[in-house]
Amino acid sequence: MIGIIGGTGLAGLLKNGEEKIVETKYGASKVLIDENKDVVLLGRHGLSHSTPPHKINYLANIYTLKKLGVERILSLNAVGSLKVEIEPSSFLIADDFIEFTKVRKSTYYDGEDGKVAHVNMLEPFCSDLRGILKEILDKRQYSYNEGTYICTEGPRFETIAEINMYKNWGHVVGMTAYPEVSLAKELEMCYCSLCNISNYCSGIKDSDLTVDEVLDTVKSMESKILNVVDDFINYKFEERTCGCKDAMKSAFI
């Protein structure tokens, strides 16, 4: 079972399938299930994009995918570029992250049930899935980079001072890949992030950042994104051999 998590401007991913509300001990999540291809589609902001990044129930969403039998997750993230050479309308495959969130619940092991765990994040994004994404993008001849994802709280955009700090540490800024990536690791699921570059961050180039700019770029990239998703869904996956499936073996105190 494959899980696809979509965000801004990706309603095209959520038109087909059987709609289902999955109840978990962390809350409920609405998904669409394509039974023929064993694919679960989850819109992190809701079908009408009514949930801002800091209020998404990440624990329920990732747990829902686990409950449905998902082993591999492709996360689609609209991001801003921190580097002039990483241009809007291109892609980035995240290989690491730094997070600056404030109010999000970010672990299944907070001690309430008597369990405390420290999951190893040496390789947060699955190396096998990153390799598959590179293979797909190369075959499609789509422009892409690899780099570090800076996750901010949102929903506001970042200040120029913040961007001047972030650009020394990472390549793109987004609001949703964390805590998805660490929660998936805690549930021993493979997780990768395909970032679509929707804009330059404030101060990177001489232009004012607007929501319309972001949405227009995402819309222009939609066919490419859907092509990558289709290739990913139809990829001939083999048995998992990466470290994700055993991530919690030595994590418990």
Automatic annotation (TrEMBL):
E.C. designation(s): 2.4.2.1
Domain of life: Archaea
Annotated site, Important for substrate specificity, chain positions: 158, 211
Protein residues bound to substrate: 175
Residues of the Nucleoside phosphorylase domain: 2-233
Record-level GO cellular component terms: cytosol
A GO term, aspect molecular function: S-methyl-5-thioadenosine phosphorylase activity
Residues noted as binding phosphate in the record, renumbered to the chain: 8, 44-45, 176
Subunit-level organization: Homohexamer. Dimer of a homotrimer.
Function per UniProt: Purine nucleoside phosphorylase involved in purine salvage.
Additional remarks: Although this enzyme belongs to the family of MTA phosphorylases based on sequence homology, it lacks several conserved amino acids in the substrate binding pocket that confer specificity towards MTA.
Protein name (Swiss-Prot/TrEMBL): Purine nucleoside phosphorylase
